[in-house]
Structure formats: C-alpha cells, structure tokens
Design a protein that fits this description.
By secondary structure, the protein is an all-alpha fold. The protein is built from 22 helices and no strands. The chain has helices at about 1-10, 20-30, 40-50, 55-70, 70-75, 80, 115-140, 150-165, 165-170, 185-195, 200-210, 220-250, 255-270, 270-275, 280-290, 300-310, 315-320, 320-325, 325-335, 340-350, 355-385, 400-405. The longest helix is centred in the C-terminal third of the chain and has 33 residues, at about 355-385. The radius of gyration is 22 Å and the shape is globular. The N and C termini lie far apart (about 45 Å). This is Tryptophan 2,3-dioxygenase. It comes from Micromonospora humida.
Amino acid sequence: MRFVRELTSWSSGTADPEQFPYQAVVTEFHRVGKHFVKKELLVQLDAARARVNTRTTPARELSAFLDVALDKWDGRYDYRSYLALPLLPLSTVAPETGPGGRVADEVDRPGPGGGRWERDRLLVDLVADALAFELAASTDAIDLLPEQRPGPAMAAKRCRLGVRAVASALTRLGLAGAVTERDPVAAAVTLHRLAVTGRVPARERALALSMLPVYVSHDEYLFIRVLQAYECVFAGVAEELRGTIAALDTGRPRPAAGRLAYARELISGAGTLFSLLATMQPAAFRTFREYTEGASAIQSRSYKLMESLCRTPEPERLDSTAYRSVPEVREVVRAGQPSIDRAYRAAVRAGSLRGPDLDLVRQQMAAFAEAVLTWRRTHHRLAVRMLGARSGTGYTEGTPYLAAVRAVPVFTTVSTDNRPPRTDPIGGCCE
C-alpha cells in the first residue's frame, strides 16, 4: 500500500519532517475513517513520532499532527484531538498578563497579523472549505466520505447558509461586497476563491491536516468544520473579554464597552452557523457519532475560558465534570483568573465607572449576556433535534446537561431579566 511504502522510505532515510508523507497518511485516514485505520499504519506512525525531534517548527508541526492522528491509539481521544485543534492557529488558554498580574490589553492592529483579522480569516477559510467539499461531492468530483451523501438541493442549501454564516466576518475583513451572486452555488464558488487567494502554505496545510473524520459519513466533514469555526469564535470572544477586563482595570470604560460590543457581534454572528449545522441528516450524525465516544463539546477549552472570564464559576460548577473536563482552564480559574464581574465591581467601588459610562458598560454587558443565552438555547434545541434523549459523548448526560445550564447567568452583576424577550435566530434550527 502507498502509505506503507512512503512511510517506510521516510523512516529509513533522514526522517526529515518537511518530507513526511502527509498526503499518503491523510488519504488512508480518509479512506476508512480514523476509527478504522489498521494497526499496521498506527504502529508505523507511532514509530515515526518517536523519531521526531521537536526543535524545529516543521518538526513541531509533524509531532502535533501525529499526536492528533494517534489519539485513539494512545487512549487520549477527546474533543480537542477530534477537531484537530492543535493544528489550527487558535489562541492559547493562558492569558497574557501585565504588571500586578492584570490581564494585558491586546492592542489589535488592523489587517494581516492582527488577532481579529486572523481569526476572521480562519473562520472564512473553515466555512469556505466545507462548502467546497459539498460542491465537489454533489458533482461526484471526489470520492471522499461517500456514505449517506445528500443530494444537490441540500448542497445548494448549505452553500446559501454557509455564505450567510460568514457575512459578518467578510464585512470585518473589508470584503462586504465581494460575494454578490444570488445563486448559492455561484456564491459559494466565489467565497472559496476569495478564501484561497493569498492563502499561505502553512494555512493550506493546517486546513488539510485538520480534517480527520472518524468514519466515512459525508456529513461529518460539515460537522467538524462548523465545530472548528465555533472554537475560532470562542477564542476570539475570550480575547475580547480579556481586553474588557484590562480596560475596566485601567479606568477606560468606553474601550471596555467597545470590546463587549465586539464580543457580542462575534457570538450573534456565529449563531447562523447553527442553521448550517442543522442541515445535517440526523441518521448520518447518529452513524458517525457511534465512533466519537470520548469526545464531547463539554471539553471545549475556549468555551469554558469565555464563560469563566465573564464571572468566576461557583465552587460546585468548578468541581463539576464541565470544568474537570478542561483541567487547564480549571487551574487558571483556581489560580485567580480575573473576570469581568470582578473588574466591574472594583471599578464601581473605585469610582472609575459611574454616570453615563456606567450605564453604557451595563448595557453592553446585558446585550452580550443575552447573546450568549440565545446561543445556549439554540444549541440545546439543535441537540434535542439530533439526539433526542440519548446521552452525550465524552461520557456526558447530553441534552439534559444542556437544558440545565442554558439559563445559568452569564454575569452576576448585570441581569437580563428586564430586557425584552428576543426571538432566537435561525428559525428553530430548521430554516
């Protein structure tokens, strides 16, 4: 077999990380699904990993890929490795800190290289890649993940919803008028063309290597890309919340309100991803889900980081499965991670937050909280549609857990109770 020959040749030579046969390995994983890769290949990959010296960037990239590919072999398969998050350019869990241990206020420069720009670019890349896969599969241009393929009409619907899901990101990137086609397929083609234009080889490789489905069901491709996109959003929101804390700590209420407004925009805009995800065929989802045991969204570091930056979790929640599933975040919180709630109270006591500025910050906190609560409600509704009363993967309770936490307050200092009721987006996930 090709991958055996190429791996043997690579291992018997200099084992140069830049010459590793990525394509042959990924092709085999795609042919059968990660869960069904033969022991022979896994043994060879494990041996290759042992030869990697991680002193160089290519070697570290190879090591990260092999760790993701061998997660089931190692017995440490989880949500992070399932989504191949170590291979994507997402923010780290640990915050940057300034004098006195305060969270540093990231000054985000515009354009390439700026954190906001890079995250929006990654979001567009992920969704555009998912749509390109849909189009290629609908015309039988590829044989990747051939089981339970939907028809051309569903591919067109996914194109429409996918283009809509990245509309806000395109606007922030200065590309608001770049996709104008009314035909969803033509619009998706244009979006993909935009995404690949100027894409650096490192990003191209990251996208290719971060798609390792567990099975060969068509809809798993969409599932993985949408969840990766959400991780990108959560990482971006966490950075905005850190910036909010820093602004409140240094007596700058208007920048704090601006950060919160931007975070709300990210969460609200990402809600449209649920419409795209809701096009998954429940039968297909239940098929590949059989092989994802051990991986659950409850293990999302970025989401828990976002939650804990709003306010410090109560001791019982911090000691629950939700936070024990993300030990890195749990330890940061236990070590005294700052939160917006705490910074808000301190600013009010110090007198640096009062009058119109106090009203503005409270307004933006309430608006952000409502956006998060809306996201939770929609997530729960979609999970019920896909899972019913089934338990969750990752040894979790599934929809009962989501029902229990969907109304947990985002902040304790600001309530959303007196805000007018809002209609959840995406038409109940069935648009």
